[in-house]
Amino acid sequence: MEDWAEIRRLHMSEQLGIKTIARRLGLARNTVRAALAADAPPKYERPAGGSVADEFEPRIRSLLAQFPDMPATVIAERLGWEHSSSVLRARVAQLRPLYRPADPADRTTYEAGQIVQCDLWFPGKVVPVGGKVLADPPVLTMVAAYSGFIMAVLLPSRTTGDLVAGMWHLLSGLGAVPKTLVWDNESGIGQHRRLTLGARSFAGTLGTRIYQTAPRDPEAKGVVERGNGFLETSFMPGRSFTGPGDYNTQLARWLPRANSRMLRRTGQRPYVRIFDDRAAMGVLPPLAPAVGTSHRVRLGRDYYVRIAGNDYSVDPSVIGRFVDVHAGLQEVSVSCAGRSVAAHQRSWARSQTITDPTHVGIAAELRTAYKARTAAMRGPMAAAGAQVGLRALSDYDDLFGLNTPSTAAPVVRPDLQVVR
Fold first, then answer.
1. Burial of residue 48 (number of CB atoms within 10 Å: 0-12, 13-18, 19+)
2. Could you report the per-residue pLDDT of 91-134, keeping only the tens digit for each?
3. Contact present, 166 and 152 (Cβ < 8 Å)
4. Is 97 helix (H, G, I), strand (E, B) or coil?
5. Once rounded to an integer, what is the mean pLDDT over residues 44-56?
6. Residue 416 and which of 34, 62, 146, 378 are 20 to 30 A apart at CA?
């Protein structure tokens, strides 16, 4: 190819003769003449040899005509194929498009401020949550579809309360609310396009819409799926973590670098394009939405409440009263009649007992006071030295007429008193 082009250049542009060109390039003059006479560069072509799959092709076509999606392994079984499997797979891959109906996918375009795609990505068991226990908590990923701007945070669980708290954390950091949040069939958000109560309340407070895609339709949120892949290949390799807080710290430091890369889809950097995205979005609500997990329970004698499989101590002075328990992403708080009675850092491990030493001290004081009060109530009786009178068993026989005829009246002894 290179010699053919150079020969034509020297002859047509520099007006050199065949002999001169042959001497300069070290070629035979007949080679130079052939190159000048040819309209295209020389190309070596070897006659195509037959393939062992040729004789099976009619039967392969017949099977694909009836079953376009039949796997190559099944076709090999039907044909009684005894040769290399790669040869058959190549022929099936060549013929299958002729019989499988086309399913084209249109390229989606996004308008600024319209859509933020949401998904959960699991980094693997790399996050220490208690001692040497490694957990695989979910990472909530949210990507603005127009700009490609990535937002992400590690969550304790995939429950509704934590998902809503994670979305509010990321959107409040963005400072704007998109028109639509796109989710898949995540159970904490809703299933079969029926949103959970927490998700509906969150969307209503923010004035946005949560749209759930159809099952098995990853193309509907391909932007966030690519974002998840970028996290897996560019953030995770070579990193280690000391806990959930360290994971979120490293992730927050890495995200600005991720959003400064050039996107082939848009031809711009996300951190630049996000300004147009944010300008077209709605404003944050004046009142923050209710996020996290909350419930009311009557505090028992052991003065502990359970959240996400863990037990947290509460001020024992409110035993027997109703307390309001709230779990956010970082803290578990308990209140009684508007007064705070417990505050703990949330544990990401399971089956843990988290105790405030102050609560143990209050419980000891209350227990001592209870024993003293009980002893004071029993004091007068103990001081009198009163004893309980005992009846002979024969007295009960006489009382119920067991030793006298049935017509006899029962004998009652009023002179015997029982002291209690």
1. exposed
2. 999 999 999 988 787 778 899 999 999 999 999 999 999 778 89
3. no
4. helix
5. 82
6. 378
The candidate with the shortest Cα–Cα distance to 294, out of 161, 193, 176, is 161
Q: Is the pLDDT of residue 379 over 70?
A: no
Residue 75 parent element (H or E): helix 72-79
Handedness of CA 112, 118, 123, 129 (dihedral sign): positive
The share of the chain scoring above pLDDT 70, in percent, equals 92
The amino acid present at 356, given as its one-letter code, is: D
Which residues are registered as beta bridge partners of 305?
312
Side chain identity, residue 67? F
How far apart, in whole angstroms, are the C-alpha atoms of residue 208 and residue 174? 15
Cα–Cα dist 356/312, whole Å: 8
Write the CB contacts of 319 (distance below 8 Å, at least 6 apart in sequence).
299, 300, 301, 303
* Sequence-ordered alpha helix ranges (H) in 207-260: 222-230, 244-258
Q: Residue 385: pLDDT band by 50, 70, 90 thresholds?
A: low
> How far apart, in whole angstroms, are the C-alpha atoms of residue 111 and residue 119?
20
Q: What is the residue type of 183? A: W
Q: Angle, nearest 10°, between helix axes 57-66 and 85-95?
A: 50
Coil, strand or helix: which one is 351? coil
- Rounding to the nearest 10 degrees, give the CA dihedral for residues 57, 61, 64, 70: -10
Place of tokens 């980094």: 123
d(CA 359, CA 317): 9
- The DSSP element (H or E) to which 211 belongs, if any, is strand 209-212
The separation between the first and the last C-alpha atoms of the chain, rounded to the nearest angstrom, is 120
| DSSP secondary structure letters along 29-62 | HHHHHHHHH-SS-----PPPPP-TTGGGHHHHHH
d(CA 234, CA 261): 12
Angle of helix 72-79 relative to helix 85-95, nearest 10 degrees? Answer: 110
Cβ atoms within 10 Å of 145's Cβ, excluding its own:
24
Mean pLDDT, residues 237-263 taken together: 95
Mean pLDDT of the chain: 89
**How do strand 180-183 and strand 115-121 relate by DSSP bridges?**
parallel
300 forms beta bridges with none
The pTM (predicted TM-score) of the whole model is 0.69
